[in-house]
Amino acid sequence: MAIIDKETVLSRSRLALDATAIGRAMLEGDMEEARFRAYLLRSQASDLGLDDVAKAALMVVVMLPPDERLPKRGIGRAMLWLCNTLDVPH
To answer: pLDDT digit of tens for each residue in the chain (90 aa)?
Structure first.
């Protein structure tokens, strides 16, 4: 049986809530909020040593450039990658 680190599970769960907030902001057309959340998630993941999550969040940041109102083509794939990196084993 695999041992699951409780703190890692909780950290990834909190980051998953942030990823949800990014998606919600994009659906509501609030790209500024989506960008803010993506930068925040990337920073938090990096601080936690979750390099795979930080890299995926960086891709979301790249797809949400600050000088554009709409995300770049491929944002859905970037969000999917981010969500997949947050998968918590059970």
So the answer is: 455 677 777 788 889 999 999 999 999 999 999 999 999 999 999 999 999 999 999 999 999 988 777 889 999 999 999 999 988 544
Give phi and psi for 56, each to the nearest 5: -65, -40
Confirm if 89 and 51 have CB atoms less than 8 A apart: no
15, 41 Cβ separation under 8 angstroms: yes
If you write DSSP's letter for every residue of 14-32 in order, what string do you get? HHHHHHHHHHHHHHTT-HH
26 residue type, one letter: M
Amino acid identity of residue 1, one-letter, is: M
**Whole-prediction pTM:** 0.83
Backbone angles phi, psi at 17, to 5 degrees: -65, -40
